[in-house]
Amino acid sequence: FIAKGKKYWGTATDIGLLLNNTVNEAIVRSQSFLIIHKLTPENSMKWDIIEKTRYAFNFIDSDYLVDYARSTGKLVRGHTFIWHSQLPSWVSAIKDAATLTEVIENHISSVGTRYSGRVYSWDVCNELFTAEGTMRYSVFYSVLGETFVSLAFNAVRKYDQTAKLYINDYNMVSNATQRFLSMINHVKTWISSGVPIDGIGTQAHLSAGVAGDVQAALSALAGSGVSEVAITELDIVQASPSDYVTVTKACLAVSACVGITNWGVSDKESWRTQDKPLLFDNYYRPKPAYEAIIAALT
Ligand code: G3I
């Protein structure tokens, strides 16, 4: 953060919004904005972009993002290896454990090795839990059971010794939900059995008026035994200045919280554009929430 020097404010972006949208790119590049110094690829590091066809890797978009970050002095949050969504159908169709294990290892070794030393962190597993707190159905879970978690984290650690390894999920603001409790219990168990989990990411695609719960949630997540937590995909319905300031202060108040990533720059390109959840409007003008955050930080 601008005032504290240590924590980051980042954004999700990708090649299209950097190469073909100069106004957006200028905001991302600008150090006068809230020190955006971490970038998360919104889509370019997902399995269906990088390895849509088995063993045919396409790094064009992800290389662009990583090179852009390096040339502009920013860090990268890698997103994401194991996710049930944006997963090619050839992976979803695998039925046997040996093949799936080999495919996961190969995917992680190819991508992990390529970006080793160039990403700050990886979302190794994304959205593993249901609202009821059970493990979500996916090809990973149905073929390998919970062991895919250990397999994935250990593989990423093997090919990238420096990145912080995260487990990431949504709807983890109220610390009383089954998904939230399940995340904490599973992470405790996995860490105690040696799975190299460094951090928990809470996506924080928030409704209006719930920001007051974020600080307690961050503290509880940090209490699971990870060394850090982060808000990884923040956007807030209608982007009220007080909600944004409350979330910002929550991260500042929790020492394990390393930073906040906004899920985009302008409402125009947001995945939920109708909710106007970001800090810049459809014309790339800073909104009141942006000004309020600056005021709170300085
Ligand atoms: O790449 C194709 C393109 O070839 C095609 O012409 C176009 C036509 O619709 O679609 C393009 O793919 C789209 C992709 O974004 C890239 O733009 C997909 O249809 C679209 O579904 C996809 O949406 C992304 C979504 O994840 C997919 O689940 C959003 O941009 C992205 O913001 C969103 O991000 C997720 C996080 O990864 C995980 N947490 C939730 C978050 C919001 O859903």
Give your account of this protein's structure.
The protein starts with 7 loop residues before the first strand and ends with a helix. It has helices spanning 15-19, 22-29, 47-50, 60-71, 89-92, 97-115, 139-144, 147-159, 178-192, 214-222, 241-253, 288-297; strands at residues 8-13, 36-41, 75-82, 121-126, 164-169, 199-202, 205-206, 228-236, 257-262. The chain has a single domain (8-297), classed as TIM Barrel. Helix 11 (241-253) links the parallel strand 8 (228-236) and strand 9 (257-262). It has 12 helices and 9 strands. It comes from Serendipita vermifera MAFF 305830. This is Beta-xylanase. One of its GO terms (biological process) is polysaccharide catabolic process.
List keywords for this structure.
single chain, about 300 residues, alpha/beta, TIM Barrel, 8-stranded parallel barrel, 12 helices, binds ligand G3I
Radius of gyration over C-alpha positions, nearest whole angstrom: 18 Å
Structural class: alpha/beta
Run of helices and strands: EHHEHHEHHEHHEHEEHEHEH
Bound molecules: ligand G3I
**Number of strand elements:** 9
Assembly type of the chains comes to single chain
Strand arrangement in the largest pleated sheet? 1-2-3-4-5-6-8-9
Within CATH, the superfamily carries the name: Glycosidases
Given the structure, what is the number of helices? Answer: 12
Number of structural units classed as domains: 1
Major beta sheet summary: 8 strands, parallel, barrel
Q: Roughly how many Å apart are the termini? A: 10 Å
Beta-strand percentage? 15-25%
Share of helix, binned: 25-40%
Average pLDDT figure: 94
The name CATH uses for the topology is TIM Barrel
